[in-house]
Amino acid sequence: MAQSDLSVEGGGKSGPAQGPEDFDVSQREDVAKLRKHAVGLGGVLFLTVTGSAPISAMLFNTPIIVGFGQGAGAPAAFMFATIVLVIFSVGYVAMARKKTTAGGFYSYISHGLGREAGIGTGFGSVIAYSVFEASLCGGFAYFLGLKLNAFGVNIAWPWLALGMVVLISALTYFDVRISSTVLAIGLISEIAILLIFDIFMFAHGNTNWGAINPVKAFQAFPAQGKLAAGAIGIGLFFAFWSWVGFEMAPNYGEESRDPKRIVPRAMYISVIGLGIFYTITSWAPLSGYATTHAAIAQAQTNPADFYLTPAKLYAGQWVSSIMSYLIITGSFACGMAFHNTAARYMYSLGRENLLPAAVGRTHPKWKSPHIASVTQSVIAAIIIALFAIFTGTNDPTSQAYVQVYGLMAVMGVIIILSVQALVSLGILVYYERFHRDEVHWWKTRLAPVLAFVSQAYVVYLLFTNIGFLGASSYSYAYWLGPVDLVVVLSGIAMAFYLRRRNPAKYERAGRLINEGL
């Protein structure tokens, strides 16, 4: 039977009591499906929290927040982000309990704001997670290159980054449980060493209690001598970037054992757990500096050692050394998690024929989205190759770390925060239009509104401070937002085209769910 003949879940005309039409693929043999019951709560947590990469978030992002954002108020910035993302999760969980789908943002926005917005943000999400993998490959290559140099081995950063792409591609081609196991090992080890670091730092004393004053999240520090002034928008943006990955839980709904229970739990555990952990671990290194000025100076002039220097002084060389290795493995694990999510977005769009149908197939044995996975690997490799060609290979700090890692991350996070804001709006609209009897003043009204406004505000702050990113020779940073917008608008244009020329395909867009789990 043709895919256009998919039966409609709930049937009939959409209405307040029935909701939008869905296509339940659970009982269909002609629609490629992911391996069901493959992972439990722990597996989903490892697949999503590793995307947030705690050690990368701390060692990469905290120095930027301290050095160019809130200064000693970095923990307060993480506290603010925690509150906003917990509020966002309230509505997100309400939607996850309604719809089980590999499409995540794409499907939820389609249900709430319509197929046009859904397809546009679906394409945007594919781009975001695609560039995230390339971004982490840049960070991985930078730190692995430094470690190899210490042993007298010199390998150009593009080859190290491409090696990571190939290894990730090989691992993710198979059963999702292989990815879950690899990510579990990486996540547990990096959290363990950071907790050891925290204990040593707080035991040392010199705790700056003002760092957790919530007001500090909205205070930047002035220029001091040769030190540049901080910017609130930059600090908050990189705080939110530290969480990117936790929102991937619904994308694994079709592969989890009990999605209606596991996905909500994974969401709350990850966002709250990471929030507490980030606040403490961004606070801890401040104890290792005599003054706030000294911490800011280190963050601006030598960010790579912002954590490693106090670790060496107060915890011992062994802690500093282990952290220097785990930042490499953590970058790899993070890139692998983003690869998995990008592949599932492509798979979701492919099985609805919004991308080539082959992308929507699963492996006959492993039930992995193997073609989408290989496609994502090719995209990541192309991005790395383009940076190598146009920026060069002789300056890993600028080319691999600042540009590939830093600017590709910015490009992706612009989309993710914008899309999360739209998801919140979509959830509000969905419940008001189709499930009025289930509307809750907090879960489906106030929480989505607060999440929409706060996340839109953070995106606004980023653009008001884009000059910080576009300085020096990186002026193309000014084009990151417009490029994202073009991708989303292209998806919306495609939706209008399908509505006119291919109504059957248009009707399926963002509406494939799997409720037979």
Main attributes of the structure:
2 strands, 517 residues, 18 helices, Amino acid/polyamine transporter I, single chain, globular, mainly alpha, disordered N terminus, two-stranded parallel ribbon
Q: Which range best describes the helical content: under 10%, 10-25%, 25-40%, 40-55%, 55-70% or over 70%?
A: 55-70%
Tell how many strands the DSSP assignment holds.
Answer: 2
CATH homologous superfamily, by name?
Answer: Amino acid/polyamine transporter I
CATH architecture: Up-down Bundle
Q: From the helix content, strand content and strand pairing, which structural class follows?
A: mainly alpha
Question: Nutshell version of this structure?
Answer:
The chain has 517 residues and is an all-alpha fold. 67% of the residues lie in helices and 1% in strands.
Ordered list of secondary-structure elements with their pairings:
Elements lengths: L22 E2 L16 H12 L1 H15 L5 H25 L6 H9 L1 H36 L6 H16 L3 H29 L27 H10 L17 H25 L8 H10 L6 H8 L1 H35 L18 H22 L4 H39 L6 H24 L1 H4 L10 H22 L1 H6 L3 E2 L4
Parallel strand pairs: 1-2
Protein architecture, described:
The protein is mostly helical and 517 residues long. It has one domain: Amino acid/polyamine transporter I (Up-down Bundle), CATH 1.20.1740. Helices cover 67% and strands 1% of the residues. The protein is built from 18 helices and two strands. It has helices at 41-52, 54-68, 74-98, 105-113, 115-150, 157-172, 176-204, 232-241, 259-283, 292-301, 308-315, 317-351, 370-391, 396-434, 441-464, 466-469, 480-501, 503-508, and strands spanning 23-24, 512-513. Strands 1-2 form a two-stranded parallel sheet. Helix 1 (41-52) packs across helix 12 and helix 13 packs across helix 14. The radius of gyration is 22 Å and the shape is globular. 57% of the residues are buried. The model is unreliable at 1-18 (pLDDT under 50).
